[in-house]
Amino acid sequence: MPRTKRIAALALLLAALPARAAVLPDDRADVLYHRYEGGGVTVDGPSVLVRKNLAEKYSVAANYYVDFVSSASIDVMSQASPYKETRQQASLGLDALNGKTQYSLSVLGSEENDYSSTTASLGISQDLFGDLTTISFGYSQGWDEVRKRGDPTFEEPVDRRTYRLGLSQVVTPSLIMGFAFETITDEGYLHNPYRSMRYLDDDVPLGYAWAPEVYPETRTSSAASLNARYFLPYRAAVHGEYRYFTDTWGVDANTVRVGYVQPVGSRWTLEAGYRWYDQSRADFYSDLFPRADAQNFMGRDKELSTFQSHMYSAGATYQLPSSGWKFLQRSTVNLFFDYTNYDYADFRDVLKGGAPGTEPLYEFDAAIYRLFFSAWF
Amino acid sequence: MRARIALCLCLLLGAAGCSNVEPWVKPYERQNLADPIMAADPNPVASSYLNHVFEVREGARGALGGHGGGCGCN
Amino acid sequence: MRLGSILAAALLALSMGAGAAPSTPTPAPDFTLPARDGGEVRLSDLKGQVVMINFWATWCGPCRQEMPLLEQLQKKYEPLGFTLLGVNVEPDSAAAAAWLKGVSVTFPILYDTRNSVAESFGVQGMPSSVFVDREGRVRYVHRGYKAGDEAQYADLIRSLVKE
Questions:
Q1: What is the DSSP string of A307-351?
Q2: Residues of A in contact with C61 (CB under 8 A)
Q3: What residue spans define the domains of chain C?
Q4: Could you report the per-residue pLDDT of A26-64, keeping only the tens digit for each?
């Protein structure tokens, strides 16, 4: 649909909505230290967010996030050697409130030595039916550039478009439910210039050989989720979410998350959660192809294989005693820990050796830490 | 895509016309929904980091997070 | 009596609007509620004064924001025959009592724990301020609070106080 028609449609949407009022997000500042350790990969770094209301109508937020990556993952170790790199990301967002409609605009950019990305997003959210229902629409456009370490001539683009629809409904004074739908289309160089697929080769002592992956140039995916949050009468909350995902590459995935939030005393809040993730492989994925030219498209990215993941989470939030600064309304210190296990059904650990196709299936555990301080003004 | 935008338009226009539905949860009955423990995303920096981890490690993406709830004030 | 309050509620409910909506004057539904400092307050006892009934809760950000400004209005217009009534709509008044310890409020705070008064006034948003004239009739309903609304409140109070 031509851009002018899209903008006209959006404008019409805005015109249809009756003007009332809602509330902007609170002013806040957060400083996070994150750490991921597992599967031979360690990634850590900071993420900082500052959000401020302006003129009672606008809320501006800025975030800066860094990943310091130290990777000796199975992919890296199978075909190359461990490496270190840094990924930086910065984003700026603006929310504007007009009656019961909230508009948002944001720009995000990320940079690593072999990948650059820019994303621009637009969103509208409207409260209806006495604020019991919130409907939201979002659109994002992304432009990426894929490069390759060691090959300065390598430069490939990726174009990403996302459409989002959200619906949130208050069902009872203690229950709120939500539905979200998101469709993403990617076009361009959609794989990793360093990864290879492998195929059976009797002429080689190893029994198999590596060759560059061949990927489709487009991918369209759709995801739909349902979630619910329920307030327990003794003052605790329980929440659950289910998401179904499918795409044109043949990947189908289910995600189930449940969580429980329990305040303890006047300063502590404890949380526990569980997440189950199940994925079936992409059509062109195989751990071992019979020949170098077995199919039009061939890939060996374990993230597109058949696997299951279980994640167990726990978190604690402590509200700090008021400092006496009139300026600081509230501040908390938080520690969240997630332990996750990834179990692959058709991706093999070639480092463990064995006849091609009989190596043990790969599995790994990861520990994720999030330690952060939040302050509200 | 055209059909999708038309659908969204119809949904919104229809919804705007239904503004006479009486809310069954009154504005003054929202103390549980306004409780901070019921917030959909109380720590955006922490949750966006975890969502980033999922997108990197897994094939699925999208349809996470939500708006709505809270005090419904103003 | 019940029919009257239902009619009043219906009329009030229909007077939707961001900001102050003038209503065709209808008698305000009478009520008696317990007050924060003990005792009770009955609305009809206040006939002869201009009354601003402010429905609020501690969980409502804009309500907390406007409280000190309401206190200023109370101090300024009380000598002219005006009083504010802060009606807290929470089922458990402990949160309100605790929060008010840190805020200086001289007008009566009433506890509507069963929400019967909020319902009879047809409250449609938080906060809501109902302006009642000296004859006990509802003249304006202001829904919500944004910075600067206190100027609107002052204008409404001045116009009612002059009558």
A1: EEEEEEEEEEEEEPPP-S-TT--EEEEEEEEEEEEEEEEEEE-GG
A2: 23, 26
A3: 2-161
A4: 999 999 999 999 999 999 999 999 999 998 889 999 999
